[in-house]
């Protein structure tokens, strides 16, 4: 990921660039394993809110919004992130700095994630204006821990992420490069067909548990979350006051979009 000036925030090109790189690596018989990392100070800070929240991006439809138009746009991104999961060759995400919001979506699509101890991962937009479209949390940590992380939107460090099984392991930041290199080289010593067979069996188990249906629902609800009264409020606040002000309200711990939510329809 190579937008270091924006902490590798996701733009319109990055999802396709990821899937293109995965396809290129899979066509190269000399490659047995794929490592994904971020340039600069972070793995990925999520979708670029200057582009998608402050600005007039086409994804921000005028009301009334069309959920299928939104779904088509976001499901394409989800599918491209999931190229890491579907790649016949094993994928490893090397996480330093931050892997937050859409950045955590990308990292958790990899077969294995290795984090720096002081790196942070989480999905703060679960508090307002988002739903993780790749929906990998429940498969990695189980229902209760996934609910805790998404109900609160909390960030956790690499040590805690490894402890609860969200990622494979965590190491001191200065050891991250060497640790991932050792892992990748160990994997790469195995014939490509053996790696593909093991991955095929394990991915089939996830598919039989309904991961594809869950991702369809999550991707649809991500669009819903961005177009609820609260979601529109968040986007308008970002556009009017800048996304740091919107983020402060989202993550500050106080009520979010107070007075904006609508009540239930009374039962006659």
What helical percentage do the residues reach? 40-55%
Strand arrangement, largest sheet? 1-2-4-7
* Structure summary, number of beta strands: 7
Major sheet? 4 strands, parallel
Q: If helices are DSSP runs of H or I spanning 4 or more residues, what is the number of helices?
A: 13
Distance between the termini: 54 Å
Q: Indicate the multimeric state.
A: single chain
Radius of gyration: 19 Å
Write the layout of secondary structure elements.
Layout: H1 14-27, E1 34-37, H2 49-54, H3 67-81, H4 83-86, E2 91-95, E3 98-100, H5 102-109, E4 112-116, E5 120-122, H6 137-141, H7 143-152, E6 156-157, H8 158-163, E7 169-171, H9 176-188, H10 192-208, H11 211-225, H12 229-241, H13 243-251
Parallel strand pairs: 1-2, 2-4, 3-5, 4-7
Antiparallel strand pairs: 5-6
What do you see in this structure?
The strands form two sheets. A four-stranded parallel β-sheet has the order 1-2-4-7, with helices on both faces. A three-stranded mixed β-sheet has the order 3-5-6. Helix 1 runs parallel beside helix 3 (67-81) and helix 12 (229-241) packs across helix 13 (243-251). The chain is α/β, with parallel strands linked by helices. It is built from 13 helices and seven strands. The longest helix has 17 residues, at 192-208. It is globular. The chain has helices at residues 14-27, 49-54, 67-81, 83-86, 102-109, 137-141, 143-152, 158-163, 176-188, 192-208, 211-225, 229-241, 243-251; strands at residues 34-37, 91-95, 98-100, 112-116, 120-122, 156-157, 169-171. The model has no long low-confidence stretch (mean pLDDT 96). The relative contact order is 0.14.
């Amino acid at each position: 990921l190579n937008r270091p000036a924006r902490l590798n925030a996701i733009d319109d090109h990055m999802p396709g660039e990821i899937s293109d790189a995965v396809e290129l690596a899979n066509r190269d018989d000399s490659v047995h394993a794929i490592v994904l990392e971020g340039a600069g100070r972070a793995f990925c800070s999520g979708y670029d809110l200057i582009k998608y929240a402050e600005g007039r991006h086409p994804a921000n439809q005028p009301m009334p919004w069309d959920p299928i138009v939104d779904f088509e746009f976001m499901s394409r991104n989800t599918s491209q992130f999931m190229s890491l999961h579907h790649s016949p060759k094993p994928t490893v995400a090397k996480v330093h700095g931050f892997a937050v919001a859409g950045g955590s979506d990308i990292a958790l699509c990899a077969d294995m994630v290795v984090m720096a101890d002081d790196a942070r991962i989480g999905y703060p937009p679960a508090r307002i204006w988002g739903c993780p479209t790749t929906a990998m949390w429940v498969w990695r940590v189980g229902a209760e821990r996934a609910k805790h992380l998404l109900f609160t939107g909390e960030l956790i460090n690499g040590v805690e992420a490894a402890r609860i099984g969200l990622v494979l392991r965590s190491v001191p930041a200065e050891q991250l490069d060497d640790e991932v290199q050792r892992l990748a080289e160990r994997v790469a010593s195995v014939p490509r067909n053996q790696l593909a067979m093991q991955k095929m069996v394990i991915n089939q188990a996830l598919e039989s548990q309904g991961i594809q249906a869950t991702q369809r629902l999550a991707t649809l609800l991500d669009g819903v979350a961005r177009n609820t009264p609260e979601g529109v409020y968040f986007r308008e606040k970002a556009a009017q006051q800048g996304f740091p002000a919107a983020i402060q309200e989202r993550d500050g711990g106080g009520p979010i979009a107070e007075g904006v939510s609508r009540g239930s329809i009374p039962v006659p």
